[in-house]
Design goal:
By secondary structure, the protein is α+β, with helices and mostly antiparallel strands. It is 22% helix and 24% strand. The chain starts with 9 loop residues before the first strand and ends in a 23-residue tail after the last strand.
Length: 189
């Protein structure tokens, strides 16, 4: 894909056969950060009903979102990874993927959605803020690169920002509050 390509997309559910091509390019999409392990085949096989792929007009992946509703905490959902081809960024693809995911999980009764980001990744921080997620600034957080984050969240040296999207209190699925919601202080997952 080149910068001149059309990035108009259509959204669809992933299938297991989508895993190899996405795994083959995802590290490049994340500027060389090794994230391939986050797109394991199991996500495409077992979590397709809450995940999405954005295909360009040629049927090539221009973006994806992998997420799930928590089986142990049914009122919560987790976005595992959102990726958009670098040449297709800033065209609403990431936002469309997040909105599709939020629609799915809100219809299932989810009130709280979390997503993690590396504190030193300004693109990820800006993206999640732009789609109405707010960083958790509760107990245990510290200012990491200008944003509240949790040191050693995923192990020693693995700091993370926990972004949270909360549905507005009192709004049901499909109701007037199915928009971005009003952030409240969550418990850290």
């Amino acid at each position: 894909m080149t910068a001149g390509d059309n990035c108009a997309v259509s959204l669809r559910r992933p299938i297991e056969d989508d895993q190899p091509p996405i795994a083959g390019m995802v590290d490049e999409w994340f500027s060389g950060r090794r994230v391939r392990h986050l797109v394991a085949r199991a996500w495409f096989r077992h979590f397709a009903s809450t995940s999405w792929i954005a295909d360009d007009p040629r049927g090539k992946p221009a973006g994806f979102i992998i997420g799930y509703r928590s089986p142990d905490h049914p009122g919560e959902a987790v976005i595992v990874l959102v990726g958009v081809h670098p040449n297709c960024r800033r065209r609403g693809i990431g936002r469309a993927l997040v909105e599709a995911f939020l629609t799915d999980v809100h219809k299932a009764g989810v009130a709280t959605v979390t997503a993690l980001a590396w504190p030193g990744e300004p693109l990820a921080v800006a993206f999640f803020r732009a789609v109405a997620f707010r960083p958790d600034d509760g107990p245990g957080t510290q200012n990491l690169y200008g944003t509240p984050g949790i040191p050693d969240y995923d192990g020693i040296g693995e700091d993370r920002i926990v972004f949270v999207h909360r549905r507005r209190t009192g709004d049901g699925p499909g109701g007037p509050g199915d928009g971005p919601g009003v952030p409240e202080r969550p418990s850290v997952p």
